[in-house]
Amino acid sequence: MPWKVVEYQNATGDEIVARVPPNGTMDLVSGSQLIVQEGQYATFFHDGKPADGFRAGRYSLSTQNLPILGQLLKIATLGRSPFRSYVYFVALKTFTDLGWGTPQPVLFRDKEFRNVNLRAHGSFAVRVSNPKILMRTLVGTQGVETTYAVEEYFRKIIVSRFTQSVPEVLTTIVDLPQHYSELASRVRKKTHDDFDQYGLELVDLLIESITLPPEVQQAIDRAAGARAVGEDELGRYERVARADALRDASKQPGGAADGLTAGLGIGAGLGMAKEMMQDLGPQQAQRPAQQPASAQPAGGGVEAVRAKLRDLKGLLDDGLITQEDFDAQKKRLLEKL
Questions:
Q1: Which residues have C-beta within 8 Å of that of residue 295, sequence separation ≥ 6?
Q2: What pTM does this model have?
Q3: What b/e string do you get for 174-189 counting C-beta neighbours within 10 Å, with b at 16 or more?
Q4: What CA–CA distance (Å, rounded) separates 40 from 92?
Q5: Which of 36, 211, 297, 309 is most deeply buried (CB count within 10 A of its CB)?
Q6: Co-location of 128 and 25 in the same domain
Q7: In Å, what is the CA distance from 203 to each residue of 8, 90, 152, 188?
């Protein structure tokens, strides 16, 4: 039986494309009514090929508004011979709150913390800019018809462009918070052509969060606490990283005092400690019981051990090593006497 009225209303709000009827075809005759809602675009298909498209409005189907179908389907028999077809309704509204995220950590080479694994997530919004291209590409070849399918299809592209953009904007994750907008803008530009080739427009893209590994975040937090002693911005993070290396080396088999275990010997570590204490400025120099770093003995013996212990005590007082780290190094130094 011929369809007298053809229309579609999206009840869920998440369908970009809907087919009427969902399966198979329907009988139409000249004079059948097509209703296209505001914000929709309708395209007739016959034998798997798109025919004519319609914007919002009410149409009485005839050879005048279906010229391509007219010759093929021989409508000119007073409307009594039905023809079989189906219609795709394309939603032209902006679909918001689509999500993207990194399923795996993104490796970033940081100038302060070396290789850092970043995780990120956010949202994006799209709309159909060219229904014909959409029907020919995503719908016709990929079967993408819902916002969920769009999220799945484009998530990998967004993550790929995000990975490319991070090293173009950042040199260290210390500066990360102030570059969220710039990163998002760069990713939008990089993904423009990716969306455009499928008849879609990326209306907006937001980076909601970029998270760091816990150990890196803790190092940044400790470095932020060192601000009170007046260190410069770059030196503070560098010195915290060195203190972490000294601490880790002390936990290796044989201890840092026995050589260059784990890439850092106690001599090199204490040299860094002296540099850190010198850079702390007058506040450290005013300690009456502390010998200036430049005057510390270069050789062994009791005085050398005392000098090294004073360096370690300075690190402990500044919160750059723990009491446990200090006690472990103290024990090793005293055992060598």
A1: none
A2: 0.60
A3: bebeebbeebbebbbe
A4: 5
A5: 36
A6: no
A7: 25, 17, 17, 9
The residue count of the chain comes to 337
Strand partners, 42: 54, 89
**Residue 169, both tokens:** 């904007």
Separation between Cα atoms, residue 155 and residue 160, nearest integer Å:
9
Which among 65, 91, 117 is the end of a domain? 91
Instruction: Please write the tens of the pLDDT for every residue from 40-82.
Output: 999 988 777 777 789 999 988 775 666 545 544 454 444 445 6
**CA nearest to 38, candidates 83, 82, 8, 11:** 8
Question: Are residues 254 and 301 part of one domain?
Answer: yes
Which of 29, 61, 91 is where one domain is finished?
A: 91
pLDDT digits (tens, 9 = 90+) for 151-175: 999 999 999 999 999 999 999 888 8
> Contact at 8 Å (CB) between 257 and 249?
no
Q: And the tokens for 26?
A: 């329907």
Please tell me which of 184-198, 281-295, 299-313 the model is most confident about, judged by mean pLDDT: 184-198
List beta partners, residue 244: none
CB 169 within 8 A of CB 186: yes
| pLDDT tens digits for range 204-253 | 999 999 998 887 777 777 766 554 444 455 555 555 555 565 555 555 55
* CB-based burial label for 42 (10 Å; 0-12, 13-18, 19+): buried
| Total number of domains constituting the chain | 3
Give Rg (Cα) of the chain: 34
**What tokens appear for 183 in the block?**
């990163």
Pair 65, 121 in one domain: no
Per DSSP, which regions of 129-252 are E strands?
A: 200-211
Name residues whose C-beta falls within 8 Å of residue 156's C-beta, 6 or more positions apart in sequence.
none
- Residues linked to residue 205 through DSSP beta bridges, in sequence order: 124
User: 114-128 and 200-211: which strand pairing?
Assistant: antiparallel
Q: Is the same domain home to 21 and 119?
A: no
